[in-house]
Specification:
Helices cover 46% and strands 16% of the residues. With 295 residues, the chain is of the alpha+beta class. A 5-stranded mixed beta sheet has the order 2-4-5-7-6, covered by helices on one side. Strands 1-3 form a two-stranded antiparallel ribbon. Pfam families: HATPase_c (PF02518), HisKA (PF00512).
């Protein structure tokens, strides 16, 4: 941070946009430029063709052009929406409106949605979603959290999208929901979770893929905005690299925590810990959600 930036932070002011201390890294600008210009180029190209060669284009070609324009528009809108969402999350302007959410039902909906979207891109995986007790046995018990469902949906969708993108087509993806013992994950927990007396009040969601894994030198950076894993296998994957960053902000906004573990050649596991909500903890969790502070 420069001297001007430190002074502005101390005074609670912001630097003007044309200040030399306000800048974006070259690689960040390059990524933004690519992700915004690519869909624009698609839209522009097909619209130009429709205008110039309207009488020569068959109905079938016209329909194909319109589908491509629609896809380009969707991609552009998604990019802009992600940038806006991350901006709101980073500046603290997001207000959570919590309700009881069944994690199993939520993750089943997320799985179905991602499977449908990825099937269009010919990325198909066998997703194994299970809910187990601490001893590993399957259970139908309700695992509830107090959360804003659309936000939590987005967080888990980003994680599952990531697993689909970075693992070979056809490989399995395992999603497991279970109560977690505090001592097993204490080093990952935020103070708001680590201070809980009842270990049964924590729930773990793990998303395990069997892809190439994440290089050790990049594992600590994967939640940074616009960070993309540099591997030849995935060079055709589009995106700004904001999904994991957004997921991290959303999970932490719900007083949870998230981290990743990976072994090259064996795949990666993303773990999420959230406060479990029961009748005895509902009042406490409601207070926590409405009094969100950064740990």
């Amino acid at each position: 941070m420069t001297q001007h930036q430190e002074e502005a932070a101390q005074e609670g002011t912001t630097l003007p946009i044309n200040s030399p201390d306000v800048f974006l890294p070259t690689e960040l600008l390059a990524t933004l430029s690519h992700e915004l210009r690519s869909p624009l180029a698609i839209i522009k190209g097909y619209v130009t063709s429709l205008l110039l060669y309207d009488q020569m284009i068959t109905p079938e070609e016209r329909l194909d052009f319109l589908h491509s324009i629609n896809e380009g528009s969707d991609r552009l809108a998604q990019t802009i929406d992600r940038i806006l969402e991350l901006t709101q999350l980073e500046n603290g302007s997001v207000i959570i409106r919590p309700a009881l959410v069944d994690l199993f039902q939520l993750l089943r909906t997320v799985t179905e949605e991602v499977e449908q979207e990825q099937a269009i891109l010919q990325r198909e995986h066998a997703v194994n979603l299970r809910q187990i007790q601490a001893d590993g046995t399957t259970t139908a018990e309700d695992y509830l959290v107090l959360a804003e469902q659309p936000r939590l949906h987005t967080a888990f969708k980003n994680l599952l999208d990531n697993a689909f993108k970075y693992s070979p087509t056809g490989s399995p993806i395992d999603i497991t929901i279970m109560p977690v013992q505090r001592e097993q994950v204490s080093k990952h927990l935020k103070p708001s979770l680590n201070g809980r007396a009842d270990t049964s009040e924590l729930l773990s969601v793990t998303i395990r893929d069997y892809g190439n894994g994440i290089p050790p030198d990049q594992l600590e950076r994967i939640f940074e905005r616009l960070h993309r894993i540099e591997m030849n296998l995935i060079h055709e994957i589009h995106g700004l690299g904001l999904g994991l960053t957004i997921s991290k902000h959303i999970i932490e906004l719900h007083h949870g925590t998230i981290w990743a573990e990976s072994t090259l050649g064996s795949g990666s596991t993303f773990s999420v810990i959230l406060p479990r909500t029961t009748e005895t903890t509902l009042a406490q969790n409601t207070y926590l959600i409405h009094n969100t502070v950064k740990d």
